[in-house]
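Data card: per-record layout.
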Amino acid sequence: MSTFGTLLGQRLRRDRWQLALWLVGTGLLAYSSTAAVADTYGAEADRAQLLQLATATRTILVFRGTPDGTDLGAVTFFALFAWLALMGGLMSTFLVTRHTRAEEEQGRAELVAATPAGRVAPTVATLVHGVLANLGLGALVALGFLAGGLDPTGSWLTGVAIAASGIAFVAIGLFAAQLFRTSRGANGAGVAVVIGAYLLRGIGDATGTPSSDLLHVTPSWVSWLSPIGWGQAMSPFGDPTLTPLWLSLAVSAAVVAIVFALQSVRDQGASLLPGRKGRAAAGPALSTSFGLAWRLNVSTLIAWAVGGAVAGLLASSLSDLVEQIGGDAPQVAETLQAALGGGATLEQAFIATFYGIIGVLAACCAVQVGIRARQEEAHGTAEVVLATPVSRTRWLLEYWFVGVIVIVVVLGAALLAGLAGAASSAHADELVPLISQAALAQLPVSLVFLGLTLVVFAYLPRWTIPLGWTVVGVAAILGTFGPLLGAPDWMLDLSPFTHSPVPTGDDVDWSGGLWMIAIGLGAAAVAVVSMRRRELAAGG
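The structure for this 540-residue chain is written out next.
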């Protein structure tokens, strides 16, 4: 086998389980969502009502896309494409960083470069690996749409749009790996670009020009700044065009050319942006292992807290639309209420749905704290800390405490922003207790994911990152989309998000929340105690 073939095979083998989860999970989401949209909005009049409400509200377009007619395929594309492209973008940037900057950071890239492979072949193999992964993602999304009974041409064009968007993010991920000295920095930049692309597309959609019947929206120029916007502009189920596809591929090719040009002039392990210089002497906060654990997670905390604050502000600011939704689109109202078992009022369902998304953010932040502990172990820096009088159990317990703090901060930011938004509402006196209850209700589920991630870290350290993200991702999809997708009760019950306490009428059932607190604390205790006898597992 050629050197290139060996490198590509190594990447495919290393990522086989992670990619399988990403690809199959996304394909199943596309299929089940298609069936759910057909069941919920089977009548054209219902679909027209949904699109007119979204176009009139505009803020909904930030999260969904641009309406493109009442055809079932067009409405499904409107509801799903931006979310699927977001998942493809995250998959692509994580994949690229894992095989480029992370390999340089751990010294393995230098060993490969000393073989006949050189420095170019590994990057080419990573590029091809990323392209193949996105082609597979696009194919599975297309098959999911086809299995749901949508038009074949539109389904395959949707798959092409997903793949083209993901390939653009592969190129961006390769560029980020040239800029930053650490995989953490490259991953952070990649995620920021993907989320930024999602938001740019959303802003462009929300500021677009609607048709007179409110069933079509032409996005503004801002959407054309986003690879997700390019895929959406292909309009697979409306007036299809391949022009955005050529734009996406041309930009991707240009970025890849820049990547190879930069790689040819920089040293192995170096980066275009120099690492930030540290202080000559550490401050008092870094005199303890707990202070170090906190410092390593501060930047992560800030990013997730900002996201929580934005979502909290939107939740309370949009609450005045609840009555309009109930009157203008009863099917949307019924879907929101059904997601909570049908006992909640529309306003309670609206707030609970938004804060459920905030709960996902808090859980992701908690998972990232556990992953940070694994990264410190893999890089060998944890061993330096444990060479001091700090024991393994104390070290992991401190990471748990940091995880609890970041959860509280993210939820607190969402709560304060929600209360600030509620102050200008006509129903502020009703919103304040609802928002407070909804924010507090996300604490138990976040503790569960923090505890589970630490358990994986204690028993299967090399699986901490893939399993940590997979568990929270699957649970979030089941908890957020499960009721809409008509998933069976036993499957919904597997997601901790399903058991978050929510107001139903005048009551709040905390039985599920108390059980989750007990599970979260128990899992954390098991993880901490188990660290006493576990050997450090560097690398991986």
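Known properties of this structure: Residues 500 and 513 are 6 Å apart (CA to CA). The two ends are 25 Å apart (CA to CA).

See the next section for split statistics.
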